[in-house]
Write a structure and sequence with these properties.
Chain lengths: ~675, ~325
């Protein structure tokens, strides 16, 4: 079944990959075997085919031996297919006359018998030799890249990515779900290990984003739909009604003071429910954009029952003192409706962040049962000067005999709540050790209390982190190694009366201890966002088993996803601290800039196409395409594949009942000859 | 100049293909005028030795129908190949193995035992089986032996052309014979029928929605069918999308689904696999139990998807069955 039209001349190379392959495969024997196969003109084994001399060898042989096909048996195509295709092209051949055999990951690395591994390498090489004869010259196609970018999520990752792109002169849409950008970082008091004030370093960046001429900031908005492909995404963004005209509101906040609710009465999300806000509010003083928002769930001008589609209905019952206060600015608009904006962008950076572990899932620690058990994020707000208590650390429960608020005299911080635990989440959340120590420092500073850290291991692997740990030890913060068994208010001694008792096996001292404290802080871990799966589907990404978004390669493509033109940054990919998040956001922006500044991408020609004459128009393929690349041409009664959308998955090719869809590089005769080849060795 | 010689022969077949020759009706007169029929066992008496005596290549064309199941059929196939310039596999059995090919699911012993002992309609208390030879008053007549598997004609001898169908339509037969007589021959190995799937000429093509997915499969007798809507859209397994056209959708016009007798297009090696791949990809449920429920509507998948093509398919026969 060899092609008779041309005289096939194959050059075969088997790579030792140092000892990676040669230790388990007899490379010289493989080369000798392949030499005897049909159409093989030369067959060599070489120490490192991917090295410069290795690549030059291919080029030289193509010219000297008039090779018209090249096969290299080495590592995974993922690693070096591009390298060898380039070498083939540099030798003057079409790069798709090259074929690669993986005898490392598929062979030497996974076998323990040298003889059998060598047999397998020969069989795989035979398959490639038979296949490559049927290879055809293919052209790579180019797709233009729209220079505009979309950044999803306005935490520190999204902010940094958007700023980087905008500063490079690119137009950026930044979409944030909450009324203000800032994310988790905006809630933090200080940052470890330098103890910079989080707001002081973040809020200037936030206002820069708000004012940047290249950034269109859409807060209180969500991405609803993503269509298209690398360089040409069409995105629909849902803009939720905030009942305030963004154009007219100047952020004077007169409406807030004028609200019929004289005192803030409703749980304040930004302060983790420790403070109160009004129905018309701004999440925090430095919120960006500086535009108020009305909560229709509690505002008196809305009915308590929603419309059939869940939209709030205006009751018009309120005196609307806010509207009066707004006056000529006329920024309040109770009739505002959800709006859909359509934008076209070339690249997308997903930076949707994390959620903290719900500490109620570990009932033994008493969160939600004992009022003086706090989450770490609550403490961040509690120690913050602009927090609900103005930075005064006051216990939720208990008063001094004179009726004044009580301050804790002893505090226990429990590490790894919802981390490193088979019952909840197995992963290490990476930031908890450090933020726990930061909170220990801040709490000690604010209250002078005795602070105990209960840890499994202290993980302080970062610049200045170990030093910070040492500093804490010097400050007299106690560290007790052991996973806490329970937090209880059951006193066994008079000293324990009225306190929370932490029961823990001190694994260094070797006995079980009971430590009474006034306040317990739970260092809750980091988890994927609750809607991570929806977001994953929206952007056609993958998730790891734990639910964080999956990078294309853990080491070599950490901000890329499996969808071209879509990148990830920050804790949506896995728990990480601020320095790593910012570095990753910069990397994602740089990857996007590579595409934008190049202006086009070359697409692998492994796309599928319809044999137009032969298509019977049975429509079997049309609902199967995961990329919606196949359309039915009603006038011609045939299917048609949009090559730019085709990712070469092969689903339609397999399903076409009359064999009228062909995929480049995966044509039937190529695959069948490969199967015959692999079975030919015995 | 003498008229070209033509032979018709039958192997493992039902006789339906012979019927098509008769169904040419008055057209057969035109053909008979132009050719000499030298062999046609269904209609006229010829002897083995007469054929054996003919010089090689003296027959212009032999149209052979039926699959190769016995030693005698194999021998005749070889002989007719020798005697003919063109050997044409005529009809689904010669082309693809046809209905007899379905027996490749079973061993020869299994089949003989069923047919001569276990079949409900069989009364054979002595369990007599056909013998290859037996003594009969001084003579010893012989019977041909059954092979283990059924083969297509081209699995036994080289074939020049194929006329598909169970049976081939008179129209295609005419096209094939006329092409032979006028020496307007397509490339060797061609199937004399359009190389596009049946949907192309199906009167119900336009009625199929683009998003057809299957929540159930029904057989024709289990459902009141819409006479105009695509059968697949009604959950009836129709082999049309994976079957070569050329029959003008005769079955579908008669209210029945295509069963695939014309075989696959030239681009497909295994018709059954292709339609399976297509139908299964479009099964609506995505959970195992739910999928099984849908597939229960196809109680005999081999008989449905490989009704004519098992012998020619990649599966071809029961694993480990010897050929002869």
């Amino acid at each position: 079944m060899q092609s008779t039209k041309e005289n096939i001349r194959i050059g075969f190379y088997v790579c030792h990959c140092g000892h990676n392959i040669a230790a388990m495969v007899d490379c010289a024997d493989v080369a000798k075997y392949v030499k005897g196969l049909p159409n093989v003109v030369l067959s060599r084994d070489y120490k490192y085919m991917c090295s410069d001399p290795g690549q030059e060898l291919i080029q030289k042989d193509i010219r000297e031996y008039k090779l018209n096909r090249v096969v290299v048996a080495s590592c995974s195509p993922l690693l070096h297919e591009h390298t060898f295709r380039s070498a083939t092209a540099a030798g003057g051949l079409n790069p798709y006359y090259f074929h690669m055999v993986n005898i490392r990951e598929h062979d030497s690395w996974v076998h323990t018998d040298r003889g059998e591994a060598t047999v397998k390498a020969k069989a795989l090489a035979h398959a490639a030799i038979d296949r490559v004869a049927f290879h055809k010259a293919l052209e790579t196609k180019t797709v233009k890249i729209n220079p505009d970018a979309l950044v999803v999520g306005g935490g520190i990752a999204g902010i940094h990515a958007a700023m980087t792109l905008a500063n490079a002169g690119k137009k950026v849409y930044l979409v944030e779900r909450e009324p203000s950008i800032g994310g988790h970082m905006a809630k933090f008091d200080k940052t470890f290990p330098t103890l910079d004030c989080a707001a002081c370093i973040l809020t200037p960046k936030m206002s820069e984003v708000g004012a940047h001429p290249n950034i269109t900031l859409w807060s209180y908005s969500e991405v609803a739909q993503v269509d298209g492909y690398v360089g040409n995404y069409k995105v629909r963004v849902k803009r939720k009604p905030r009942y305030i005209s963004e154009e007219r509101c100047i952020g004077c906040m007169d409406c807030i003071s004028a609200c019929v609710f004289k005192e803030p009465k409703f749980e304040d999300e930004f302060n983790e429910g420790l403070g109160k806000r009004k129905p018309v509010y701004i999440p925090f003083p430095q919120a960006t954009p500086q535009i108020v928002v009305i909560d229709p769930n509690v505002c008196l001008n809305f009915k308590r029952t929603k419309g059939p589609d869940g939209t709030p209905i205006v009751s018009d019952r309120c005196k609307k003192t806010c509207v009066e206060a707004c006056g000529d600015k006329n920024a309040i608009d109770f009739t505002q409706k959800e709006e859909i904006k359509e934008i076209e962008v070339g690249t997308i950076i997903v930076a949707t962040g994390f959620k903290t572990f719900d500490s109620k899932r570990v009932p033994a620690y008493g969160y939600g049962i004992y009022k003086n058990v706090y989450t770490a994020l609550e403490i961040e707000r509690l120690v913050n000067a602009s927090g609900p208590t103005g930075g005064e650390v006051i216990l939720r429960e208990g008063k001094n005999p004179d009726g004044s608020p009580k301050h804790p005299k002893s505090i226990g911080i429990i590490h790894c709540v919802g981390s490193r635990d088979k019952k909840t989440n197995v992963w290490c959340s990476r930031v908890c050790c450090m933020y726990s120590m930061k909170l220990a420092h801040l709490l000690k500073e604010h209250t002078g209390a005795e602070v105990y850290n209960f840890y499994i291991d202290i993980r302080a692997p970062g610049k200045g982190y170990e030093e910070f740990y040492n500093k804490l030890l010097d400050e007299g913060v106690h560290f007790i190694r052991g996973r806490v068994g329970e937090v209880t208010d059951w006193a066994m001694t008079p000293e324990e009366e009225g306190k929370l008792v932490i029961r823990v096996e001190d694994t260094l001292a070797g006995y079980v201890r009971r430590i009474p404290v006034d306040m317990v802080v739970l260092s809750s871990g980091l988890e994927p966002q609750a809607d991570a799966q929806d977001v994953r589907r929206l952007f056609n990404m993958s998730c790891g088993t734990e639910g964080f978004f999956l990078e294309r390669h853990p080491k070599l493509a950490p901000v890329n996803t499996f969808t071209d033109g879509i990148f990830i940054a920050g804790a949506c990919q896995g728990p990480r601290d601020i320095p790593d998040t910012v570095a990753q956001a910069g990397a994602a922006a740089a990857e996007a800039l590579v595409l934008i500044d190049k202006g086009f991408v070359e697409q692998e020609p492994n796309t599928a196409f319809i044999l137009d004459e032969e298509c019977s128009g049975c429509k079997s393929c049309i609902p199967l395409c995961p990329y919606s690349a196949i359309l039915y041409d009603e006038t011609r009664k045939k299917a048609h594949i949009n090559e730019a959308l085709c990712k070469g998955c092969g689903t339609c090719v397999a399903a076409c009942p009359s064999g009228s869809i062909v995929q480049n590089l995966f044509e039937d005769e190529q695959i069948f000859s490969e199967i015959q080849g692999v079975l030919a060795y015995d | 100049m003498s008229k070209p010689k033509v032979a018709f022969y039958w192997c493992a077949s039902c006789g339906g293909c012979e019927e098509t020759i008769v169904d040419l009706a008055e057209d057969i007169l035109g053909i008979v005028e132009k050719v000499d029929i030298v062999l046609w066992p269904v209609a006229m008496d010829f002897k083995y030795k007469d054929i054996e005596a003919m010089p090689d290549k003296s027959i212009a064309a032999t149209l052979l129908n039926g699959a190769i199941r016995t030693t005698e059929q194999e021998e005749m196939a070889h002989m007719l190949r020798r005697k003919s310039q063109y050997l044409i596999a005529y009809g689904a059995c010669a082309h693809l193995g046809g209905i007899p090919g379905l027996s490749n699911q079973f061993s020869r012993e299994h089949m003989l035992k069923f047919n001569y002992e276990d079949a409900p309609s069989m009364a054979n208390p002595k369990k007599t089986r056909p013998q290859l030879k037996f003594a009969d008053g001084g003579r010893e007549p012989t019977l041909p032996e059954l092979h283990h598997v059924v083969r297509t004609l081209d699995q036994v001898v080289e074939v020049d052309y194929y006329v598909p169908g169970c049976p081939p339509t008179p129209k295609l037969t005419n096209v094939a014979v006329t092409a032979l007589l006028e020496n307007r021959l397509p490339p060797k190995g061609s199937v004399i029928a359009p190389d596009i799937a049946l949907c192309d000429e199906c009167p119900r093509k336009a009625s199929k929605p683009v998003n057809t997915s299957f929540t159930e499969f029904k057989r024709p007798h289990q459902k009141l069918m819409d006479p105009n809507l695509c059968l697949l859209a009604q959950g009836i397994v129709c082999m049309g999308p994976s079957t070569r056209s050329g029959c003008e959708a005769a079955c579908i016009r008669g209210g029945m689904p295509c069963t695939g007798c014309f075989g696959p297009t030239s681009r497909v090696r295994d018709q059954g696999l292709k339609i399976l791949s297509s139908l299964c990809s479009n099964v609506a449920p995505k959970e195992n139990g739910e999928i099984d429920k849908v597939l229960e509507g196809i109680p005999d998948p081999v008989g449905t998807f490989y009704r004519y093509g098992l012998a020619k398919s990649l599966m071809r026969r029961k694993v480990n069955l010897p050929v002869k």
